[in-house]
Design brief:
By secondary structure, the chain is of the alpha/beta class. The protein folds into two domains: 155 residues, Creatine Amidinohydrolase, Chain A, domain 1 (3-Layer(aba) Sandwich), CATH 3.40.350.10; 256 residues, Creatinase/methionine aminopeptidase superfamily (Creatine Amidinohydrolase). It is 36% helix and 24% strand. The strands form four sheets. A six-stranded mixed sheet has the order 4-3-2-1-5-6. Strands 13, 14, 15, 16, 17 and 18 form a six-stranded mixed sheet that branches. A five-stranded mixed sheet has the order 8-7-9-12-19, with helices on one face. A hairpin with a 2-residue loop joins strand 10 and strand 11. Helix 1 crosses helix 7. The longest helix has 46 residues.
Length: 433
């Protein structure tokens, strides 16, 4: 009887604690939403000359900004509508979207029916109406073609002629951060790096037995255990050799002498990280990382230090990219012509991809990365989050002079002073015995 009572008590406490954690996360997300609506939204709507922003949602097909807006129940079609009516506050309405969590979040002024949209817009008579469609930014492209046609039909030709893409508005709104948001992101980063570093340890890996996919599945289990998400699917756990990447998250058994890499991120309260870690599996008789591999890592750290010192706010991402490569060249590094297009010389070849990060592993803000050409033209602002990602290729004598690609990546915030880390960044090659 006592055993049964104790078991029931433990179950009750477990449920209570789970509920407390869910409530804690909900409260934090509400704080972020209210802060962003109060502090960021007026600024970015006016910068982009948008009088009304309509975000359309359908049951089973939500806009990418659905979590940012507070979610809610959409019976058929619903809209988040933001109107600049002057003053220091943007009017917020949810039409056709309801529910306890949305209403209790305290972010919206008015809840109504989706059938009110036409009269609601006409009463405010906006001159420029922002809609979420974009050819270059997926996170700003939530409106379907049929949804666009429906809005055109509902609002009529007069207002349809005033539709504009909210692409830049979405980028600015999401990528400019408030303090409550940065606090959550730091929490997510702490979880991400601790899990990654434990994954590359003897707690998880036994050389000659453990496979790459064993490590990846262990990491997936940690996401499940901590109720975390990820924007990258299966964690990338891979082996790098003289011919480049040999295998990624497969049944390939981890062997002594392997150089291991992890590329992954976690999602917590609508904030997503992106980072890498590197490890070496000691050969029998070895006590430390071989000198050539260690030297390649040290060269990459020098690159990271230069990038950190060079990036400043107030310039476009392209201007920042030019400044970084200029500083790297002055320090004796070689700018690569393209990804994996390294030279055979003794110099360390480098290519950078310092992309936006935050509400997805690859965010929608200013991006100092060749693979985000449109966002290279966006201005870097204080509070932007950037993944400081790059690849450095250095010759390794132990590999017969072949080059080892060292990928370093950790997440940072841009402040008025420049780049500042949000957590302990990758300090060393991890060692697996």
């Amino acid at each position: 009887m006592r055993l049964t009572f104790t078991l029931l008590l433990l179950i009750f406490l477990s449920i209570s604690l789970t509920g407390q954690e869910a409530h804690r996360r909900w409260r934090k997300m509400n704080q972020i939403r209210n802060d962003k609506f109060d502090l960021i939204l007026p600024e970015v709507m006016r910068e982009n000359n948008i009088d009304m922003w309509i975000i359309m949602n359908r049951e089973g097909r939500f806009d990418p900004l659905y979590p940012d807006m507070g979610e809610g129940y959409v019976g058929s079609t619903g809209y988040y509508v933001f109107t600049d009516r002057g003053g220091d506050r943007i009017e917020r309405a949810a039409l056709g979207i309801s529910g306890y969590l949305l209403k209790e979040g305290g972010a919206y002024d008015y809840f109504g029916s989706e059938l009110e949209l036409k009269d609601y817009v006409a009463e405010r008579d906006p001159q420029r109406i922002g809609l979420n469609y974009s050819r270059s930014i997926g996170g700003a492209d939530g409106l379907s073609y049929s949804g666009y046609l429906e809005l055109t039909e509902i609002l009529g030709e007069t207002y349809a002629a005033r539709f504009v893409s909210a692409e830049k508005l979405v980028s600015d709104f999401r990528s400019r951060r408030v303090a409550s948001e940065i606090a959550v992101y730091g929490e997510a980063c702490d979880l991400a790096y601790q899990i990654a570093e434990k994954a590359l340890s003897n707690e998880v890996i036994t050389p000659g037995i453990t496979t790459l996919e064993d490590v990846a599945w262990w990491m997936k289990e940690q996401l499940f255990k901590h109720n975390l998400g990820s924007s990258f699917g299966m964690p990338s756990v891979y082996v790098t050799g003289v011919r480049g990447i040999l295998a990624t998250s497969t049944d390939r058994i981890i062997q002594r002498g392997d150089v291991l890499m992890i590329d992954w991120g976690v999602g917590l309260m609508n904030m997503y990280t992106d980072m890498k870690r590197m490890a070496y599996v000691l050969q029998e008789g070895e006590t430390e990382v071989p000198a050539g591999i260690q030297h390649a890592f040290d060269e990459a750290v020098k690159v990271r230090d230069i990038i950190k010192k060079t990036i400043k706010p107030g310039v476009t991402a392209r201007q920042a990219e030019d400044a970084v490569y200029e500083a790297l060249t002055a320090a004796g590094f070689n700018k690569m012509k393209g990804f994996n297009q390294f030279t055979e010389g003794d110099v360390t070849d480098v290519i950078i991809g310092c992309h936006s990060v935050g509400n997805w592993g690859h965010g929608v803000g200013p991006s100092i990365a060749f693979f985000n050409p449109v966002r290279l033209g966006f201005e870097i602002k204080p509070s932007n989050l950037l993944s400081i990602e790059f690849f450095a290729y250095t010759k390794v004598p132990e590999w017969g002079g072949k080059k080892l690609r060292v990928p370093l990546e950790d997440d940072a915030i841009v402040t008025s002073r420049g780049i500042e880390w949000l957590y302990p960044v990758n300090p060393r090659v991890l060692v697996i015995k």
